[in-house]
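note to self — DONT lose this again. spent like an hour looking for the file last time. sequence + predicted structure for the chain T wanted, 476 res
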Amino acid sequence: MDLSRIEYLLAKGEGLTVEFKQTASALPKNLFETISAFLNRNGGTILLGVSDTSEVLGIEENKVEQLCKNLVNLSNNSAKLDPVFLLQASIVEIENKKIIHVFVPSSSQVHKTNGKIYDRSMDGDFVVSTHAKISEIYHRKSTLYSENTIYPYLTEAHFEAEIVQKSKNLIRANRPAHPWLELFGLDFFKAAGLYREDLNSGQQGFTLASLLLFGKEEAIVSMLPHYKTEALVRKIDTERYDDRLSIRYNLIRAYESLMEFVSKHLPDKFHLEGDQRISLRENIFRELVANFLIHREYINPRSSSFEITANSCTFKNANKPHLHGILEPCNCESFPKNPHLAKFFVQIGRAEELGTGIRKVFKYSKLYSNFKPVFNENDLFEVVVPVPKIKTTPITTPITTPITTPIKNYKSIKESSLNIVELVKKNPRISISEMAEKLNVSKEGVKYHLNKLKQAQKIKREGSPKGGKWVIIKSK
């Protein structure tokens, strides 16, 4: 947790989403009342070892680590928190004292502790006891969080078994002692909040979140026919595209595909942070791609898009806005659109604590391109990230390399087109990938020159995309 963020919370004081609890050696007895209230309302931050008046008192040195472990274990214990919601706790040193920071996101389910439902107001936590008020909370959750939609006929047979196993391996690599790793079958999915029972309707089963994380492509398309994510590059051919990736598979695969797409088409800049060299591109887009996937409103039929141009990258997502307008680190509230998807991505190490990501993107984007990103939250959530300019040196030496060896550089469009024509003459069924490899250029560059040749009526394609061939058009 960023120390400046802790200082900001201390200065702000307690409120609807901030709670301080004084303790020196044990977890406060009413801690899970606050956790339950935050889960049921808008989420929030708890600081243990701080008085109600924002005074940092600290926790005993020999107790602090054990308290963190106890909190995490209790959050995964249905006798204490029902349904369970695995939380993270971190130790922060401030004013030479150690305190515990706990971030509690808003949940898409209704949680109880000691058999009671708690809610949150500006005055603190309170028990919800009337049937009408309890029904109101369930209704609010069901209309706000579509990820909780239960599909009674969805089974593990509709999941990619290797993706489920891969997720467990990622959890193990991220946290070797993770409590989920001891669970199998339905117990694992229940602990992750991906298999649930609706206490209003009595329905139980796997949720939309589980389908999105692990589902086979045909199962996802069957349930969500409109589901699609489009990634485009428009640097040369700005009217159509230079490269395209269309995703209709699960989010674990989608994350990896989009990160590969980013690595393929965006420059990287390395930066020294202390004595450690880090990739700015990796740090920025790891956060953006994860948030692009986990905060989308998936029942909205609008496709999501990720577009790369010469100057910027733009993410666009269907959204149920919590705030409206431009977001900055100072006004960004921690409000996940899909809490269980967000929680799962945190557990597998693909995302960080909610709210941390946007601050990291602002920090590294300035170093990456000298400009800050723009986050705009409305019915369409849009993020624009500037891309650094890469200087290129013009080539003046004529190319004399034989066509049988890879060509390092092009002198002109004319020469580039002639090289492609020569390759086609030798092998009319040559693929774009083979052309790119022989010419030592990108597939986008080959596609650009092929389009130029087609427009000039020098070349055409006959037959199917896979089984067809290139034909040289003879001039009359």
